[in-house]
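Ops channel
N.P.: pipeline sanity check, posting one input/output pair.
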């Protein structure tokens, strides 16, 4: 990893016999237990030729540029973020991203500042409100109306599973007391009435989102440049973008063909829980059309459920004190058919599973996929795994399903405190059981899920 370090060019390298582009001299961390630290690294045409002793490097190679790392610096392999939303994160940076407000007042002040400072657009779009700052019905439309009422506004929650909209946005989307909740979604309403209160959950967000004007190609280019720079600065060189629509995929592909895509990107193409099984053919066509250079599109994203905070995560037992267990997004039969088709077509399957019922459904599905197609090196994975039945953990190793965790979430912050009353003490005590997965022999990978939380992997480590 060189991005994010201060690089000092000090003239030509040694006078060895083989030509090279760059020689890095200083503390080189290899991540190889047999030889964890080296003194030099030699690079030619983007490939590492040699890692080892500096005298041997200078004797063997003649580098056009030698970079001496300062004593407090080091070089290390590039990091992989296995679950991130890079392009979406860049687009949200163009709007009004609010960084971890601690109170409603901080949130409202930050939004007011954006409204005053940002260029005026037809819609005002922001993100970052914590669900923990509001009651179970979420923020209300009149609170947003007080900040902006002259145009439609939508502010996404920090977890991306809820949106807060003003009256103008509800009017444009024709959402009123007569509007029914869509499948796998919920329109929050004032207590005792059918009147929408201003918060939309899960698929209900689409009712407003479909009215937001599409992004222009220049916006995608600007967003990608911003997001790539942010991730490169933390040492990330390869990502899996965990939810990519056809429009996002086209933007990535254009960047790959123009040379603007400097990050290696594995795009997880969006699937539709109410779409036909033939959607696999659509994903194959998109993969073949848009994959290029640093971009591959051979992963498919499946949302099995929602999130605990909004009570849309699917649980085996009811939420504490309630007669509700959340909902599974997919019918078992359709899910098995789509997943089997994806595996047969060479796709890696990337499942979102927050609740223990969702995790069980995902494992049962991948078991059926293996039964139908045989074992493969698909490296299918399940992301988040906030709450998993202990009896299911061993199945991850048995089925060779990768456990994709977000380690930054594994401490008791306001978000955890918010969901403890919904889980009860026993379930709350076993959230994010990463050690249990490790002891069971499961293969573990890590991601940030930025913009939900920081993209900086060192804070998670």
């Amino acid at each position: 990893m060189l991005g994010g370090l201060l690089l000092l060019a000090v003239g030509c390298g040694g006078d060895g016999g083989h030509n090279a582009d760059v020689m890095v001299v200083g503390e080189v961390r290899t991540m190889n237990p047999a030889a964890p630290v080296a003194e030099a690294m030699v690079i030619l045409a983007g490939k590492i030729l040699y890692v080892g002793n500096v005298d041997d490097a200078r004797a063997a190679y003649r580098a056009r540029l030698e970079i001496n790392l300062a004593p407090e610096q080091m070089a290390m392999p590039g990091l992989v973020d296995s679950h991130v939303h890079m392009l979406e994160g860049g687009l949200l940076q163009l709007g009004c991203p609010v960084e971890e407000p601690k109170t409603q007042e901080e949130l409202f002040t930050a939004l007011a500042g954006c409204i005053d400072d940002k260029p005026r657009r037809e819609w005002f779009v922001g993100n970052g409100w914590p669900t923990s700052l509001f009651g179970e019905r979420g923020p209300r439309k009149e609170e947003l109306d007080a900040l902006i009422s002259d145009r439609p506004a939508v502010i996404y929650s920090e977890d991306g599973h809820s949106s807060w909209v003003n009256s103008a946005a509800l009017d444009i989307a024709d959402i009123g007391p007569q509007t029914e909740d869509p499948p796998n979604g919920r329109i929050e309403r004032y207590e005792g009435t059918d009147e929408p209160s201003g918060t939309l959950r899960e698929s209900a967000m689409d009712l407003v989102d479909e009215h937001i004007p599409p992004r222009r190609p220049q916006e995608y280019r600007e967003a990608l440049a911003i997001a790539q720079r942010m991730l490169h600065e933390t040492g990330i060189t390869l990502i899996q973008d965990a939810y990519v629509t056809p429009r996002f995929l086209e933007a990535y592909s254009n960047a790959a063909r123009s040379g603007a895509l400097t990050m290696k990107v594995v795009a997880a193409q969006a699937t539709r829980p109410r779409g036909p099984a033939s959607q696999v053919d659509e994903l194959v066509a998109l993969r073949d059309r848009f994959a290029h250079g640093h971009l591959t599109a051979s992963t498919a994203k499946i949302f099995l459920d929602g999130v605990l905070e909004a009570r849309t995560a699917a649980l085996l037992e009811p939420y504490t004190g309630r007669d509700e267990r959340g909902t599974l997004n997919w019918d078992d039969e359709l899910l098995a058919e789509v997943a089997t088709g994806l595996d047969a077509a060479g796709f890696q399957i990337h499942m979102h599973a927050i609740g223990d019922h969702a995790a069980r459904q995902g494992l049962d599905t991948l078991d059926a996929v293996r039964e139908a197609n045989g074992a493969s090196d698909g490296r299918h994975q399940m992301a988040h795994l906030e709450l998993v039945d202990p009896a299911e953990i061993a199945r991850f190793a048995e089925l060779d399903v990768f456990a994709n965790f977000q380690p930054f979430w594994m401490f008791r912050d306001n978000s955890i405190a918010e969901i403890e009353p919904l889980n009860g003490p026993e379930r709350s005590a076993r959230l994010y059981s990463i050690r249990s997965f490790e002891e069971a022999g499961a293969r573990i990978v890590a991601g940030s899920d930025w913009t939900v939380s920081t993209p900086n992997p060192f804070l998670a480590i």
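N.P.: looks fine end to end. The domain at 18-76 is CATH 2.30.40.10 (Urease, subunit C; domain 1).
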